[in-house]
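Section 3.1: Structural characterization of target chains.
Under the original work plan, the team committed to producing a structural model for every single-chain target entering the pipeline before any wet-lab resources were allocated. The record below documents one such target. The sequence was received from the expression subgroup and is listed exactly as submitted; it comprises 474 residues.
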Amino acid sequence: MRRRTPATRAAFRLAGLAVTAGLTAGLPGQAAAESLESALAKAYAGNPQLNASRALTRVRDEDVAIAQSGYRPTVGINVQAGVTQTEGNTLSAQSITGGAGRSIAILTKPATAGITINQNLFNGFQTDNNTRRAESGVYSQRETLRFTELSTLYSAVQAYMNVLSDTATLELRRNNVEVLEEQLRQTRDRFNVGEVTRTDVAQAEARLAGARAEVSAAESQLRTSIGVYRQIIGVDPRQLAPGRPLDRYVPASLDAAIAIGLKEHPQILSALHAVDASEAQVKVLEGALAPQLSVQGAVQQFYDQQLPNTQGVAASILGRLTIPIYQGGQEYAQIRQAKETVGQTRIQAEFVRDQVRAQIVSFWGNLEAAKARVIASQAQVQANEVALNGVREEARVGQRTTLDVLNAQQELLNARVNLIVAQRDRVIFSYGVVQSIGRLTARFTAVPVALYSPKTHFDQVKDLWFGVGTPDGR
């Protein structure tokens, strides 16, 4: 028999308990085991996809600061300096009658330094609507972030339960190989004394070979599940405790689940914020047709503008009013285009509503089916255990063949595997229902982890007038 590492033996002991007591039953002495809740906490804190979505939310926060810059003045300092050399002759009465004029040479160093301030006073409410559009984009991205959180935590539940069930399945199949090896040994002994034929031995050998192939497939599946676990949760699985359904957060009825989902699901809310952003974009483009009013103030200090050793100060305040009349029709086309976009986003929002409703119904049906399958599989396992014991006793007195015993053993194995799968699905789909209504979040389900608040970064940057450093110090 192959040698097992301590970690592997611990996993197999856990798998064996999970098989006998059920994946949802508590295991004594598992204080140091990784729980499903702690795995969710690790996925929440370290999953790359979730952290990338948080970073994108911070990117969208800056859109508000960019939009609000339209309220603020622009200030610029301009400095100009140079050297001018002027040469020529003076015109006098003598030079006009034929005499020589006096030559002159003037060297000046003209310089100008000044500050200019421009302030927008009215631009057709484009700044107001740009800010509104940016805020809607921020809210939409926050809901997208929440949906990414839902998806990440649900994927973590799937990865956790898959490792747990695949470990239990692998142990079952390895135990089955040991049973079939013993069955083959007994069959050969009976063949040697003439109680059975060579056919019985071949049947036992064939069934053993198939069982070993199933062990190899189960090992491969477990390695795949461990890889997915590492990808989503960020660490390798170590001594996983049994997972338990999230029934306390599952609504009492399908209608209640649908009502909650249509009201709270982040995909729906994100789509509605996208509608708001599209409507604000229409207002922004319409503002381009309105008069534009701004004021400019400037102060300049100048030196040697015409003559050397001269200086002066110039100050000005200018108001500018621009009334657009016609610019080729581009603005009108853009407005019509934006209105069609509003219609498209509204249709998309309705599509998302239908999609969320269908998802809730699907998860609810899967959960109900998983509950029924657990009960049926438990009964099937018990019945197959009784049947196998009976077939073995009958085979000892010659009333059953070796093939009958092998078939009974295979049916019991299949029933136990089906029970493991049903118990896994029972847990996964309970989380799936909570995810489909938009409540599988670290905050709502009280995952033991420090919560990330997107509002913190938004408040830090929305009113900043200057600075290139990010709030986290970059």
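Strands lie at 74-81, 84-89, 103-108, 111-122, 292-303, 311-322.
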